[in-house]
Amino acid sequence: MPRSLSPAVLLVDGYNIIGAWHCLKKTRDTAGLEAARWELVEAMTSYSAFQGYETQIVFDAHYQNTSSNREVITQLLSVYYTDFGQTADSYIEKTCASLRPQFAQARISRVIVATSDRAQQLTVQGYGAEWLSALQLCGEVQTTVCRVKQRSQARTQSKSRFLASSIDPQARQKLAQLRMGL
């Protein structure tokens, strides 16, 4: 079912992010580019779900003579591989241009582009998009991971298996009084 209003559309320049995040560079250098791509996809899957962003990670064709390809990972995340000879930058610019009318009609609230390419940042701002540097995105993803962990720990953290241990002491005392008929 399509959404009537998306909080934001996030366009991620995949190779730019891989080249800027220390952990992804390390993965790329030790396990290869494919492993780094999927590590980025995994990180963005959680981030997109938490933020509610419709996210596209865009990768250049990168020396492959293939046609463009789009992989839908989740309802909120897809990965786009450009045509041979098309850059991620040009794809992102065209997408920003095509989203501009939807943005103007308030069908989407924000368009955000994640890249550290300064020329790209200035170009997408001309289309009304916001931008995040690769390091800003990294910080936001890490903060989101911490928030998710805190929320899940708060839900699962219990001193014991009994319901009484999750009740505050004052309520526990009142229940004890009721049980004893006081």
Word description of this protein:
With 182 residues, the protein is of the alpha/beta class. 53% of the residues lie in helices and 15% in strands. The longest helix is centred in the last third of the chain and has 23 residues, at 134-156. It starts with 8 loop residues before the first strand and ends with a helix.
Write the layout of secondary structure elements.
Blueprint: E1 9-13, H1 14-20, H2 22-31, H3 33-51, E2 54-59, E3 69-72, E4 77-81, H4 88-104, E5 111-114, H5 118-126, E6 130-132, H6 134-156, H7 169-179
Parallel strand pairs: 1-2, 1-5, 2-4, 5-6
Antiparallel strand pairs: 3-4
Question: Summarize this, please?
Answer:
The chain has 182 residues and is α/β, with parallel strands linked by helices.
Biggest sheet descriptor: 6 strands, mixed
The proportion of residues in beta strands is 5-15%
Q: Averaging pLDDT over every residue, what do you get?
A: 84
Poorly predicted runs of 5 or more residues: none
Distance between the termini: 55 Å
Structural class, by secondary structure, is alpha/beta
How many strand units? 6
> How many distinct helices?
7
The count of domains is 1
Q: Spell the H/E element sequence.
A: EHHHEEEHEHEHH
Strand order of the largest sheet: 3-4-2-1-5-6
Net shape: elongated
Question: What keyword list fits this structure?
Answer:
7 helices, 15% strand, alpha/beta, 6 strands, six-stranded mixed sheet
